Automatic annotation (TrEMBL):
Protein name: 4Fe-4S ferredoxin-type domain-containing protein
Biased composition (Polar residues): 1-18
SUPFAM superfamilies: 4Fe-4S ferredoxins
Gene3D superfamilies assigned: 3.30.70.20
Species in which this protein is naturally found: Nitratidesulfovibrio oxamicus
């Protein structure tokens, strides 16, 4: 019986990590307090977009390399970006 529980736990862990490839994190964007500085677009144009006339960014991709997400979180003056894989 204990082996089944371990196997189920191992399978669950594998499923969780399958959602984010190694070295990538899920990007969460909460643009409610966005000041419109555009730093996110400059840092990660493959991840963050901005439509003409919009006052806020949007996600082109919800996955980003860990280093890119770290930069987005560090340089956003309003804290609009979060790591979706963080506990």
């Amino acid at each position: 019986m204990a082996n089944r529980q371990v196997s189920a736990a191992a399978t669950h862990t594998q499923q969780d990590t399958a959602s984010a490839p190694h070295g990538f994190s899920e990007v969460l964007l909460s643009p409610g307090d966005c000041s419109g500085c555009g730093a996110c677009m400059e840092l990660a144009p493959d991840i963050v977009g901005w439509r003409e006339g919009d006052e806020r960014p949007f996600l082109i991709s919800d996955m980003a390399p860990d280093g890119v997400l770290t930069e987005l979180m560090a340089f956003c003056p309003e804290g609009c970006f979060e790591d979706g894989n963080a506990p």
